[in-house]
Structures are given as C-alpha cells and as structure tokens.
Design goal:
Alpha-Beta Plaits; 23% helix; 41% strand; 2 helices; globular
Length: 91
C-alpha cells in the first residue's frame, strides 16, 4: 500500500467531475480526497494497493459524462492527512 497524489488536467471543473469520481472511488473502497486546484486542474490523493493502481487511474480518466480528461500525472508521496474512512470532496 502506498500514498499517491494525482493531478488531472482537462475539462474537469464545473462538470461534476469530483462528485462522479468520488462516488466511483467510494464504491471500490478507496480512501482519500479530491479537490479543485486554482489552475483548473483537480488534485486527488489516495491510499492505493499496487494491484489497484490501474483501476484507480481508469476511474480518474472516465470522470463524469461532461468531463474531458486530457492527462493524469501522479507521484508516490510519503503520507496524506484526511479525516474520512472513505473518499471526501474538499472545497
């Protein structure tokens, strides 16, 4: 298990991206958070087991019906701080 930080680029704000992605990730029992960034991208931080990384990225790419994901970048991070046992949307 590792912590990952993803940055999602494209048409991902104002199109129900955070809500759709957080619901899909909760169904798969991922833990973490998702939030808009000031540059128009979306940040996602999550705890992921290596065999689930591809599934996680596919959910990010799928997004919502109105979103268009152009690029997903990610990195392994040391740890993350959040107060949920599921997937939270940060505002």
């Amino acid at each position: 298990m590792e912590w990952y930080r993803f940055i999602v680029f494209g048409k991902v704000q104002g199109v129900f991206y955070r809500k759709s992605v957080s619901q899909a990730l909760m169904k798969k029992q991922f833990k973490g958070y998702i939030q808009n960034l000031s540059d128009g991208s979306v940040e996602v931080v999550a705890e992921i087991f290596d065999d689930n990384l591809d599934t996680f990225i596919e959910i990010l790419k799928e997004g919502s019906l109105l979103s268009t994901v152009e690029e997903v970048n990610y990195e392994v991070i040391d740890e993350a701080v959040f107060n949920t046992d599921g997937f939270e949307i940060r505002y």
